[in-house]
Every structure is written in C-alpha cells, then in structure tokens.
From TrEMBL:
This is DNA-directed RNA polymerase subunit alpha. It is found in: Cell membrane. Belongs to the binding-protein-dependent transport system permease family. The chain crosses the membrane at residues 21-43, 84-111, 132-157, 163-182, 203-226, 246-271. One of its GO terms (cellular component) is DNA-directed RNA polymerase complex. Keywords: Cell membrane, DNA-directed RNA polymerase, Membrane, Transcription, Transmembrane, Transmembrane helix, Transport. PANTHER family: OLIGOPEPTIDE TRANSPORT SYSTEM PERMEASE PROTEIN APPC, PEPTIDE ABC TRANSPORTER PERMEASE PROTEIN. Residues 82-271 form the ABC transmembrane type-1 domain. The keyword Cytoplasm does not apply. CDD domains: TM_PBP2. It is a multi-pass membrane protein. InterPro entries: BP-dependent_transpt_permease (IPR050366), MetI-like (IPR000515), MetI-like_sf (IPR035906).
C-alpha cells in the first residue's frame, strides 16, 4: 500500500510580507526624476544671481534652503543641479547596462575563441578601479559632460557585462535555446528573442545599482573639482563649493549632501522592491 504525503511549499505557508519602505523608495525616485525634468523651471531665482548679502544664510520663508557662500539662493541652485546629477547618471547607467548586456549576449552566442577573448578583455577592465580610471581620463582629457558620461560607461559597462554574461551563459544551455538552434534560427534571433527577455528583471535590478555607483562617482569627481564645471553645477559641486560652511552647519552644505543621500537610498529601496517582486515576495 502506498501513501501520498503532501509537501506544501514553505513560501505558501508564510504570510506575504510587504514593507512600506519599498514604496518610499519609489516615491523618492519619482520625486528626483520629476525635479530633474522640471526643476529648472521651478527655480525662483536665476542660478547664478546673488540675492542676499547674508553668506551661508539660514533657512527662511524667502530662501527655503538658505543661501550659499556667495549669497545665491540654494533652492534655485539645487533644482538646476539635480538635472545634472540625475540626468548624467541616468544616461550613463542606461548606456553602461545596454552596452554590457549586448556584449554579453554576443559573447554567449559566439564561437568559443571569441567568447574567451571578450571575457578576458572585460576581466582586465573590471580589475581597474573605476574612480582611478575616471581620475586618469579626466586629468588627461579635461572635464566635460560628454567625457564624464564616457568615463562612467568605460568604468561600469564591464561590471554590467559580467552580470549579464553569467545570465546569458546559463540561458544558452536551456532546452528552448537548443530547440531554436535546431530550427536553424540565427544567433542574433536567439540572443534577442530567446535569451534577452528572460534576462530583463536581473538586468534592470543591476541597472539600478549602476545608477547609484555612477551618482557617487560623478559626485566624488565634482567634489574634487573634476566633475561638472562652473557656471554649471551638480549636487557634488554644491557640496564642494560650500564646504566652508561646515563649521557653521550651513544649510547650503547639508542640503545637497542630503539630496545625494536620499537619491541613492531611494534607488536602493526601489531595487529591493523590484527584486522582491521577481522572487514572488
């Protein structure tokens, strides 16, 4: 006599756990994205206009984020700086992820000798610290918005490649890929139609991480004076130029630093939410 024993999944026996912080992350990311798009039009003053004789002025109804080291309105400067920080990081992260993913797909479906060559090249680039690479490039060629984007791509596309390649190499051994090969489908078709759709969720999660890394990289370069150059400024530049207000606890220094912190934490919370949905939690 045989008996059947039911073995319910542990996941189904556990209550569904939701965290309000994941929703907070989405709200924070949406806020900064909106500010990057419409912020400059909301600025109450011209970004370079000296509006007060009070240097490192406190928070007030007239100047909600105080004034900076020259008496300029910090709210106006932050609304404009957010466009540079979010815009540059978003463009660089998207391009890094796209380039890394498509190189990974090309390597996964290529002959073994070419696959090995691509992997060795990417491993060599990954071994170079991104901040050191950025310092060398900017010091050698000067600082400009296009060069900052290119620098971030060179620094972070290899990492995106490594994540995407591990996924692509695993998918290439799946039965549905073998069936497509048997049907005589081209390598391009297999990469884009059979493999890429099954990689999207992990790649999107990695894209969020690339964005955070690039925000911190560009902010660090700007803090060293090698990022966005005057008269333009990003959030890192605002921290650097108002560092003289550190001893006073000036809002002109604290506000951009908090902005960078909330942006990076918000993106991390959003990534956690995406990952949880992917895992069915």
């Amino acid at each position: 006599m045989s008996t059947s024993v039911s073995n319910p999944s542990r996941t189904s026996a556990l209550p569904r756990i939701t965290s309000p912080w994941r929703s907070v992350g989405a709200v924070v990311c949406l806020f900064w994205l909106v500010m990057a798009v419409i912020g400059p039009w909301l600025a109450p003053h011209d970004v370079g206009q000296v509006v007060s004789d009070d240097i490192f002025g406190p928070l007030s109804a007239q100047y909600p984020l105080g004034t900076d080291y020259m008496g300029r309105d910090m709210l106006s400067r932050m609304l404009v700086a957010a466009r540079y920080t979010v815009g540059l990081a978003l463009v660089a992260a998207l391009l890094s992820s796209m380039i890394g993913t498509f190189i990974a797909l090309a390597a996964a479906v290529s002959p073994r000798w070419l696959e090995d060559g691509i992997c060795r090249l990417m491993d060599a680039l990954i071994a170079i610290p991104s901040k050191m690479l950025a310092l060398v490039i900017v010091a050698g060629f000067g600082s400009s918005v296009p060069l900052l984007i290119i620098t971030a791509i060179i620094g972070y596309a290899p990492g995106a490649f490594r994540i995407a390649y591990s996924l692509a190499a695993s998918l290439y051994t799946m039965e549905y890929v073998q069936v497509a090969q048997t049907r005589g489908e081209s390598r391009l078709y297999i990469a884009l139609r059979e493999m890429l759709p099954n990689m999207l969720n992990p790649v999107l999660a990695d894209l969020g991480l690339r964005f955070v890394f690039i925000v911190l990289l560009l902010s660090g370069l700007s803090f060293l004076g090698l990022g966005v150059q005057p008269p333009d400024a990003d959030l890192g530049s605002l921290v650097r130029e108002n560092i003289g207000g550190l001893s006073q606890g000036a809002a002109a220094l604290i506000a951009p630093a908090l902005a960078i912190g909330t942006l990076t934490v918000g993106v991390n919370l959003l990534i956690d939410r995406i990952s949880s949905h992917r895992n069915g939690r």
